[in-house]
Amino acid sequence: MEKLKFSERCIFERYEGKVLLLNRETSHKILISENCFNIIVNSIDMGYSINQIINNMADEDDSKFIEKLLSVLIHRKFLVNEELTCIKLQTITFLLTNRCNLKCKHCCASAVDNHSEDILDKATVMKIINKLVACNVETIIFSGGEPLIRNDFMDILEETRRKFKGKIGLMTNGVLINKQNITQLVTNIDEFNISIDGCDEDSCSTIRGKGVFNKVMETISLLKKYTDKIYLSMVMTPQNRKLKSQFLEMNKQLGTLPILRDFVVGERAIENYDHWGSKEEIDIAAYQMENNIDDISFLSCGGIFHELAIRHDGMMVPCPLMSDDEFILADIQNVKNLQSFLQYDNLKLLSGFINFMRYFPENFDYCKTCPVNQHCWYCPHDIYNAYKYGRNMSIKCELKKNILKKIVWKEE
Fold first, then answer.
1. Could you give the percent of the chain with pLDDT greater than 90?
2. Pair 172, 240 in one domain
3. Domain coverage including residue 96
């Protein structure tokens, strides 16, 4: 490898003579001096090769140091020798319906009741599946709404399994899984993700309705006879966050895998404001719950670059959360060849792509000059949600900024 450039997936934080290099592709990060960073950037801008950069150092010690640093940057894909040409999709989440048999108080999709009609019929769904298969997607996740509410879901599932050799996942509330359909499900699905949002009847029923917890426990007992790939998820709300340890222990006892999700203040959660508390209380609780302050991972979102979502109306969006109309990339029904559509030079010109990137911390006006912006947010949807619903971002800064600066930049 001779001529180099920084990967499109790399971002940089600067603070008091230091630069933190972050790679969203590999989740690696490297802290170097700003002087060293500028040498590399200027050398790349001049079109220097690796050997030229090394040989231009002032002395032998500097040459050895920069040679070692360049080797690490290349190995960890900070520096590459080719442009990003085509997106390689790993995961597609297909929201087969916006209908649901439950009406959870925190639903960020505001799924509608089960008496409405689905926009995409089975024939259209399968045409879309064929495009995904042709694009060599690694994983297809069926979601909704509640996908099992579709009368043709089993037909869609079985036909997908015949055509698709990759992983198939199901996101479900678990209520509609029963003895009659369990064999079809476990035969065709590789992993199950069940939302439960509690650790007993009381905590679950507050959000998801009476009787749901016991029904999900029955579903887990059924599934455990066939598979261990069962995930249980709980959205951490202002009310149930104290139950985190009990939720983790419950999963341990059940032999299931726990997932803790951030509380999203939007859609039906807004409709149920009285349930969550005052707006300021919600802001404080949501920001406190995002992650432990000791977790200094950074925003390494794979939206568009590794995953896409297909809405119940066929519109492609970056992910299931970033699914508002302003993030629409295209109607997949109008995309003849998905692989061609995913050419990066074309994709980055789409308004949906531009709007999506606007909510990354390095581009968002409130946050872009902050030296810890990549560690403060964990998902661009958090920023979008805060902006859309007028959440008080200064609360987040007060809670996290100074502590993160000490951790990220090794301040005393």
1. 69
2. yes
3. 91-345
